[in-house]
């Protein structure tokens, strides 16, 4: 009976993959992969003889292709093997189901067809961000959005918490056909954010290291300078809190406690 297991390989080559994910990769009949680079694909090939990169489904040079088509083709390729009663593993970098629709789509379709399908958690880029920047997001709470969705919908950032914007290099790119955005759209994002933050607020462009020998990129810039910053497909933007948390006096009163009680 065919089955599908989506696993995360973490961000850093070979070092952030769980034991269970490793054994699913080793025991699979076929492994479909979407990992940061050729090193990661070669490492997967040491674990399983049939590793097929999904990278080729993205638009190739000169081709214009909507990423929705790309994702459906990836899902179809995996489902074909599940239907052929293979044990299929979908190995995606980071966490396989965080800001990544392919695994969710594939699992839903496999289940609909009556096959067993599940996801194992992995180490996401955001998990690396808190570690590399030495931040406990629990101290103030945090919000996490895909940058374009943040712009297109009425999300309201809370300047008392950390705000993470994923896919910042694509901010405002709604066609799903381009792999970068424009300065003009980044200016519009800065202008939008200036409703809640001063434009000299220091934000961080973060890129976790894919290899243990590399260091993460941690670049502090003023919000106003975002349109001129070097952004890549792996850049994530962190907007640290700009204000201290404010107590909720009505809630304190309801709970019968005072500010002094909080220590
Ligand atoms: N599933 C992945 C994960 O769990 O990390 C996220 C995939 S999402 C489609 C791609 C976005 O993840 C990038 O645009 C960036 O915001 C973030 N990302 C991916 N690799 C990263 C890295 N090495 N450092 C920081 N952010 C990264």
Report what the structure shows.
It is a single chain. The chain is of the alpha/beta class. The protein is built from 8 helices and 10 strands. The strands form 2 sheets. A 5-stranded parallel β-sheet has the order 3-2-4-1-5, with helices on both faces. It has a 5-stranded mixed β-sheet with strand order 6-7-10-8-9. It starts with a strand and ends in an 8-residue tail after the last helix.
Q: So how many helices?
A: 8
Unreliable stretches covering 5 or more consecutive residues? none
Question: How much helical structure, as a percent, in the residues?
Answer: 25-40%
The residue-averaged pLDDT reads 96
How many β-strand stretches? 10
What does the radius of gyration come to? Answer: 21 Å
Shape: globular
List each distinct ligand once.
S-adenosylmethionine
Strand-pairing-aware structural class: alpha/beta
Determine the strand fraction and express it as a percent band.
15-25%
Order of helices and strands: EHEHEHEHEHEHEHEEEH
User: Order of strands in the sheet with the most strands?
Assistant: 3-2-4-1-5
- Measure the end-to-end span: 58 Å
Give a short account of the largest sheet: 5 strands, parallel
């Amino acid at each position: 009976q065919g089955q599908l297991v989506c696993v995360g390989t973490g961000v850093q080559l070979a070092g952030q993959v769980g034991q269970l994910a490793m054994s699913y990769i080793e025991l699979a009949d076929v492994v479909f992969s979407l990992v940061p680079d050729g090193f990661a694909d070669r490492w997967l090939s040491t674990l399983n003889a049939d590793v097929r990169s999904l990278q080729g489904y993205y638009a190739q040079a000169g081709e214009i292709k909507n990423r929705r088509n790309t994702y459906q083709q990836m899902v179809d390729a995996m489902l074909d093997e599940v239907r052929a009663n293979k044990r299929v593993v979908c190995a995606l970098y980071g966490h396989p189901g965080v800001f990544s629709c392919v695994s969710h789509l594939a699992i839903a379709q496999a289940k609909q067809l009556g096959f067993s399908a599940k996801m194992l958690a992995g180490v996401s880029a955001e998990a690396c961000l808190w570690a590399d920047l030495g931040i406990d997001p629990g101290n103030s709470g945090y919000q996490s959005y895909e940058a374009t969705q943040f712009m297109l919908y009425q999300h309201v950032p809370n300047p008392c918490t950390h705000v993470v914007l994923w896919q910042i290099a694509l901010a405002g790119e709604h066609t799903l056909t381009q792999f970068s955005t424009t300065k003009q759209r980044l200016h519009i994002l800065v202008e939008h954010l200036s409703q809640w933050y001063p434009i000299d607020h220091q934000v961080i462009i973060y890129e976790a290291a894919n290899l243990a020998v590399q260091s993460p990129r941690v670049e502090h810039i003023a919000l106003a300078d975002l349109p001129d910053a070097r952004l890549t497909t792996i850049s994530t933007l962190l907007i640290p809190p700009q204000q201290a948390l404010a107590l909720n006096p009505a809630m304190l009163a309801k709970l019968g406690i005072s500010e002094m009680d909080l220590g």
